[in-house]
């Protein structure tokens, strides 16, 4: 049985966040609002829950699940190296609509899919998401839709596609950006823009002090 909590109502928000934290810590899936799109997420270190998330989206491990964090400091325990480029982008765009792909810490006991030793990280600019993440720790979060179907910009969009696969739906209203995050890969010899989304390529290049065409 799933329940939707209206997080625009203070009392419902408190109850919804409490239910979502309990669900995540119990190995369940929850739907949460972010500044870009609605996401479906679980404890990043619960490999069974991550497998359930992939099944809910009808996709396999060839499309690894990103990880959302609730603070800058959380990143230090998740990455292999503290790269200057990563620090620059985090300071410029977090919380916000930029995801970074970096080499993950080798000792992490998670299985996010076929990551080839990397992890995609983001800190969303949404108060409900941040509050949840600060209670649960890092969450594996993917867009709240069936793979190949339109992304969810409202909680009802997500519910219609995912149904009872998520136990808790946190309704934060319509997503303000309604587009996916931009993705920059920092795991190689130079930064590469994998997807231009909420943050324009020109702003990313400017922050890094490079020409926009070098991101391609």
From TrEMBL:
GO terms for biological process: regulation of translational fidelity; tRNA processing. Belongs to the SUA5 family. The keyword Ribonucleoprotein does not apply. GO terms for cellular component: cytoplasm. It comes from the Bacteria. It holds the Pfam family Sua5_yciO_yrdC. The lineage of its organism: Bacteria, Bacillati, Actinomycetota, Actinomycetes, Mycobacteriales. PROSITE patterns: YRDC. Its main location: cytoplasm. It catalyses: L-threonine + hydrogencarbonate + ATP = L-threonylcarbamoyladenylate + diphosphate + H2O. This is L-threonylcarbamoyladenylate synthase. Its EC number is 2.7.7.87. It is found in: Cytoplasm. Residues 14-199 form the YrdC-like domain. It is an enzyme of class 2 (transferase). One of its GO terms (molecular function) is ATP binding. Keywords: ATP-binding, Cytoplasm, Nucleotide-binding, Nucleotidyltransferase, Transferase, tRNA processing.
